[in-house]
Amino acid sequence: MLLHSVAVSIDGYNPNDYPPFAVTVDLVVLTVRPPNLKVLLTQRGESPAKGSWALPGGFVGSEQDLIDAAQSKLTDKTGIQVAEAHLEQLGTFGAPKRDPRMRIVSVAYLALVADPPEPELDEASWHRVDGLSDRSLAFDHSEILAKGVERARSKLEYTTLATSFCGAEFTVAELRSVYEAVWGTELDAANFHRKVMATDGFVEATGRTESAGRGRPARTYVASDARDLHPPIVR
Amino acid sequence: MLLHSVAVSIDGYNPNDYPPFAVTVDLVVLTVRPPNLKVLLTQRGESPAKGSWALPGGFVGSEQDLIDAAQSKLTDKTGIQVAEAHLEQLGTFGAPKRDPRMRIVSVAYLALVADPPEPELDEASWHRVDGLSDRSLAFDHSEILAKGVERARSKLEYTTLATSFCGAEFTVAELRSVYEAVWGTELDAANFHRKVMATDGFVEATGRTESAGRGRPARTYVASDARDLHPPIVR
DNA sequence: CCAAAAGTGTTAAGCCTACACCCATGT
DNA sequence: ACATGGGTGTAGGCTTAACACTTTTGG
């Protein structure tokens, strides 16, 4: 199990100066299917932890940037276009024994996506976050997931990222259901509406409305352009 | 400059499945020397970027956890005991060409330390953060530093981490000077005092006072035990 | 007309800000 | 006594939270 230095000859570096690592990306892909927050998991097809659930991920190419690796994994697993999702680095996990096979450092990314229509791949499926125990995932993936969920919860407080969970056009009620699913609380519809409207750079009216069957039809909105930036709170 | 797969034989893995990386830690060590925020830098003794300033750091050992590598670098460069400092992961930087020699993924850590007494090592020295331009450091270290400073600024808003910049025993005025240095603003002394006192889990009175020469002596405090947790705001 | 959901008004409580003011010490 | 910094009081403005109320649709 010990890894020794490997012979790779590079100018300016003594080959034995540094130990070799494998670097992977793991993805915490979250979506909201009201009233639940869901995470994308893959079932492991081979040992170790064969048959158990894990976060999607894979090796980083030798000439590939970390974010590019995360983006391509996301598109592979969900078919979601990069422009439609929010993707940010979550943290790096590199305990020596986190993978029993070898020394792997994994850079975790958090993706927030709108609930995708139909075409989920066979290998991957959506799971309720609150139905997973602290140790139900392979390796240290439960820990990574917990950090992703915590990040998502706190980011909704001080950014406008909640719109990443919505489709292109959405109502204020849909946006509210995102907050309710992620936070696991109910929000006052009246105050929520006012708060969203009062926050610059959050949503922009389309002028259209959308009827949900019963009740007064709701106006629809799109996310403002400047959404990833650094806007106000919504609590 | 191309790196190819290396032959390392590990059970369960095909040696050619993954590309080899070197993994390093880089440290953003911040301290406050009122009225300035300072960062610890080392001057590079060899090529590339010989002579220019860089963040302290180094390779992660093959059986070493990431945080352990960061802690030992911190102790090496500052002599500061781990228990006295706050250390948290900041982010991971792994652009393919960030180091011209080879593919290096660097896990950056942020350390907040009290201004150390005397024994600064020769290799490392403290620099005013606001005296550094966007490109004055080697590699992508200016970017890493910027992220560290930003993290420190925002964390002071919603945690009690400011006490990490203070010695074991401090006055409210000293604590205020920390906020003023990190944020680059002046704060109302009266309101600040009230806010700190009203925040549970922030400081605890020692019962002692400390005279700063002129004026009424200030009561001294120590950081509450539960400081890294998740306490209220101080703005 | 009635139920339901969207959206607006209103009011009281709490928080923040500015600044007046008192306290305790060194010179 | 007086200057200096520590610390408390207080009033006005702003934000929040709770909930009454009006609007607009489907049945």
Percent helix of chain A, as a range, is 10-25%
Based on DSSP secondary structure assignment, what is the total number of beta strands of chain A?
10
From the alpha carbons, calculate the radius of gyration of chain A and give it in angstroms. Answer: 20 Å
Q: What's the order of the H and E elements of chain A?
A: EEEEHEEEHEHHEE
Main beta sheet of chain A: strand number and arrangement? 7 strands, mixed
- What's the CATH C level of the largest domain in chain A? Alpha Beta
The helix-and-strand class of chain A reads alpha+beta
CATH architecture term of the largest domain in chain A: Alpha-Beta Complex
Average the pLDDT over all residues of chain A and give the rounded result.
Answer: 88
How many angstroms separate the termini of chain A?
49 Å
> How much strand content do the residues of chain A show?
25-35%
Considering the protein shown, what is the CATH homologous superfamily of the largest domain in chain A?
Answer: Nucleoside Triphosphate Pyrophosphohydrolase
Oligomeric status: homodimer
Keywords:
27% strand; three-stranded antiparallel sheet; elongated; alpha+beta; Arc Repressor Mutant, subunit A; disordered N terminus; disordered C terminus; Nucleoside Triphosphate Pyrophosphohydrolase; homodimer; 2 domains; 23% helix; 235 residues; DNA-binding
